[in-house]
Amino acid sequence: MVTPPLVAPPVPVLLPPNQPADRFYAGVAGLAAFRGVPGAGTHVPEDWVASTTPLFGEPERGLARLLDGRLLRDALDADAVGWFGPAHVEAYGSAPEVLVKLLDAGERLPVHVHPDVPFALRHLACPHGKTEAWVALAPARVHLGFVRDVPADELARWVRGQDAAAMLAAMHALDLAAGDTVLVPAGLPHAIGAGALVVELQEPTDLSVLLERDGFGVDGAADGHLGLGHGLALGAVDRRGWSAADVGALRTARADDVGPLLPGAERWFRAERHRGPGRWDAGYAVLVVVAGAGTLTAADGTTTPLAAGQTWLVPHAAGVCRVAGADLEVLRCRPPLP
Q1: Which residue, 55, 57, 76, 82, has most beta carbons within 10 Å?
Q2: Whole-angstrom distance, CA of residue 30 vs CA of residue 43
Q3: Is residue 296 a contact partner of residue 12, using CB atoms and an 8 Å limit?
Q4: Closest CA to 191 of 179, 174, 203
Q5: Burial of 315 (C-beta count, 10 Å sphere; 0-12/13-18/19+)
Q6: Alpha-carbon distance 186 to 200, whole Å?
Q7: 254 has pLDDT over 80
Q8: Topology agreement, domain 17-64+99-252 and domain 259-334
Q9: CA nearest 164: which of 213, 225, 124?
Q10: Cα separation of 85 and 97, whole Å?
Q11: Burial class (CB within 10 angstroms; exposed 0-12, middle 13-18, buried 19+) of 170
């Protein structure tokens, strides 16, 4: 049997759940409820939506597949212009340049940090760091950035002794409402609190340095330092004290906002919130249907029903699209500007 070519269709593509099992922190119930499917296991807290990024150190786990079982990465490579459009391909090739996740924190995540581009290039030969952003779907407390300058030896002592209380006491705490957004620059230490359900946009890597490991499913000697050793890995941490105003500026507490979110993040990724009817320009996008129901009509007139909890991939080939639905709420996650 001849395998059909992986040509970008002129309509949205429904994406099945892509949930790597046995993660190092707990979570499943919130994500299962959002998706409207039964949860399996206790440590399945993430859905890697439209992912072409594998888990760190693994060849395929984390990569998204189409409904027919083939890797999305192969489809994008086979018809990059159809999926992304010529401007994106000229700038980035067939790489989406963004990773979107649904994240369900069944417990507080450990304090951790993601390297920036200079660190990733120098020590990991990786062209991306991991700046990320959160769009909260449920209220949650998060910890973000140090309140004072933390000397390198003090940070090393905390990590060596696994003094999570000292780490958290030295960090800003923010209480998020559903709909709030937070930009998290690479290098900034952070921890997402128990009960959080977020849509996370990030640079397309799985680079994390765990400052906190005790009580989580992590081998402290082998994991959590990107294979660099703890001493070198701690060089990825922004140890500067951030003012409350500076940390507050990373948060947009306007849940009623529609249109572009995350101002200033366009060099990493773009996010838009849409409610009710609207018209979209042509372009590759990952859709998360947050609430309600409605339809998306592609340029060729094909109408696709949308329902809460679904995730869709919209190719550039779908052209200018129209969405409709009085109670529909959609997050449209997009690559950086080319």
Answers
A1: 76
A2: 12
A3: yes
A4: 174
A5: buried
A6: 14
A7: no
A8: yes
A9: 213
A10: 14
A11: buried
Say which range, 118-127, 143-152, 202-211, 212-221, has the weakest mean pLDDT. 212-221
Q: Which residues contact 67 (CB under 8 A, 6 or more apart)?
A: 13, 14, 16
For the chain, the structural domain boundaries read: 17-64+99-252, 259-334
Q: Is the dihedral of CA 305, 309, 315, 316 positive or negative?
A: positive
Cβ contacts of residue 33 below 8 Å, gap of 6+? Answer: none
Q: What CATH fold (topology level) applies to the domain 259-334?
A: Jelly Rolls (2.60.120)
The CATH code of domain 17-64+99-252 reads 2.60.120.10
Q: pTM for the full model? A: 0.96
C-alpha separations of 279 from 80, 262, 263, 298, 328 in Å: 24, 20, 21, 10, 14
Kindly give, in sequence order, each residue whose CB lies less than 8 Å from that of residue 32, ignoring residues fewer than 6 positions away: 38, 39
User: What is the token pair recorded at 267?
Assistant: 């060099």
Half-sphere CA count of 117, side-chain side, radius 13 A: 8
Neighbours of 294 (CB within 10 A): 23
Q: Produce one character per residue of 240-258: b if its CB has 16 or more CB atoms within 10 Å, e if not.
A: eebeeeebeebbbeeeeee
Length of the chain: 338
Question: What are the phi and psi torsion angles at 285 (to 5°)?
Answer: -155, 145
